[in-house]
Amino acid sequence: MAGVTFKGVAKKYGDVTVIPGFDLEIKDKEFMVLVGPSGCGKSTALRMIAGLEDVTAGQISIGDKVVNDLPPKDRDIAMVFQSYALYPHMTNRENMEFGLKIRKMPQPEIDRLVNEAAAILGISNLLDRKPKQLSGGQRQRVALGRAIVRKPAVFLFDEPLSNLDAKLRVSMRAEISKLQQRLQTTAVYVTHDQVEAMTMGHRIAVMKDGKLQQVGTPLELYEKPVNVFVAQFIGTPPMNFFPATLADGGTRIKAGTFSLPVPPFLRERVKGKESLKLQVGIRPENLVPLSRAARGETAPLTVEADILEPLGHEVILHGRAGEDVFVAKLDPHQVPALGAPVELLVELDGLHLFDAATEMRLG
Ligand SMILES: Nc1ncnc2c1ncn2[C@@H]1O[C@H](COP(=O)(O)OP(=O)(O)OP(=O)(O)O)[C@@H](O)[C@H]1O
Ligand SMILES: [Mg+2]
Q1: Is any ligand 1 atom within 6 A of the Cβ of residue 362?
Q2: Are 113 and 149 in contact (CB under 8 A)?
Q3: Alpha-carbon distance 186 to 137, whole Å?
Q4: How many angstroms separate the first and last alpha carbons of the chain?
Q5: Contact of 43 with 93, CB cutoff 8 Å
Q6: Does ligand 1 lie within 6 Å of residue 12's CB atom?
Q7: With pLDDT > 70 as the criterion, what percentage of the chain qualifies?
Q8: Third-level CATH fold of 4-233
């Protein structure tokens, strides 16, 4: 068992810097998710842990050992890929045995480990088939089995669920979480899907352009995103943003057609910032119809409903307030008429304020 540490890690391909400098400490037994848009360097970071890419500068440690110069096979890691990467000519059992045979483990021990892993994953009856005789979800289970029989110090996952259909993805998500909990093995999991990140990670590291934006628990990222990027990236539908300024001696926030009082928890943060250009962030669930607005202080906002998306338990409203477009989550029994003005309330304890120039959080 071991944690993983990045210390000032940089990666260049020729003159192109993909990761300028990366510091991250993944604790022993932690499930860490690296999340970010396509091309931000998630796989590169993971492949550097695995030793499939070398490190241009800095240090990567697994446990207390710097692994920069260790070949992949000596790093005590097991990786699971999006493409499964199973050998097509071997049976599933042979695929799962392969890494153990290379290590010259005695056959009875191999049998014990493979049978145990197959039982955990519910694939015992599939071991004599070849990978192409399995469904996508079953193949990914064999790939997971091949990883867990090795009993590595660290699991590395690179978008392992991307090739599965939506329903299977949800159930495999839970299975991988349970597996990690049961085995108590440190896991680094790469995805571009923020829902996957939120549901699986003990902590999440959000990346953009090779740079770490924020590391925290799912709730920390949701409630206190450090900048506009993280605020927009985490949460579905995404947070609404309105350009704004302070008014009335810093006591109100003026945003387009509406104006809100500065809530008490933000008063200190906006002191002396009267001339600053701001972005106000409001999550869709913090825009509520009158009768639901029981919690905290609120402020009214008159909007026009453009599109309604009924989802059963809730309705997503796409609307306009003057020039600004926004999204709200409504109770299905309180749906406004399309094109009509509706009054929504902003829950002020859910307000997020950002400096428009630096895009950093004010409070
Ligand atoms: N061998 C390479 N040579 C040059 N550039 C590369 C190489 N491999 C990756 N890159 C670049 O490095 C950047 C990061 O790539 P990486 O594969 O780590 O992104 P990612 O976050 O995993 O994206 P995705 O979500 O699409 O998988 C990209 O801009 C990519 O074009
Ligand atoms: Mg990738």
Answers
A1: no
A2: yes
A3: 23
A4: 38
A5: no
A6: no
A7: 97
A8: Rossmann fold (3.40.50)
- CATH class of the domain defined by 240-355: mainly beta
24 vs 92: CA distance, rounded Å:
36
**Ligand 1 pocket member 194 (CB < 6 A):** no
Closest residue (by CA) to atom 27 of ligand 1?
38
> DSSP alpha helices (H): ranges in the chain?
42-50, 92-102, 107-121, 136-148, 166-183, 194-200, 218-223, 228-233, 264-270
| pTM, 2 dp | 0.92
* Ligand nearest the Cα atom of residue 19: 1
Tell me, what's the pLDDT at 105? Answer: 94
pLDDT of residue 290: 66
Taking the CA of residue 192 as reference, the ligand 1 atom at the shortest distance is: 25
**Mutation choice for ligand 1 from 18, 19, 54, CB with most ligand atoms inside 8 A:** 18
User: Model confidence over 280-291: pLDDT tens digits?
Assistant: 999 999 988 765
Kindly give, in sequence order, each residue whose CB lies less than 8 Å from that of residue 268, ignoring residues fewer than 6 positions away. 363
Atom of ligand 1 at shortest distance to CA of 44?
18
Measured by CA distance, the residue closest to atom 16 of ligand 1 is: 41
The two tokens of residue 156 are: 């590395």
Retrieve residue 207's tokens. 């990346």
The tens digit of pLDDT for each residue in 272-328 reads 888 899 999 999 999 887 655 555 566 677 888 899 999 999 999 999 888 888 999
How far is 29 from 240, CA to CA, in rounded Å?
36
Domain ranges within the chain, ordered by starting residue: 4-233, 240-355
The one-letter amino acid at 329: K
Q: How far is the CA of 56 from the centre of ligand 2 (A)?
A: 19
Tell me the CA–centroid distance for residue 220 and ligand 1, in Å: 28
Residue nearest to atom 22 of ligand 1 (CA): 43
**Which atom in ligand 1 lies closest to the alpha carbon of residue 46?**
18
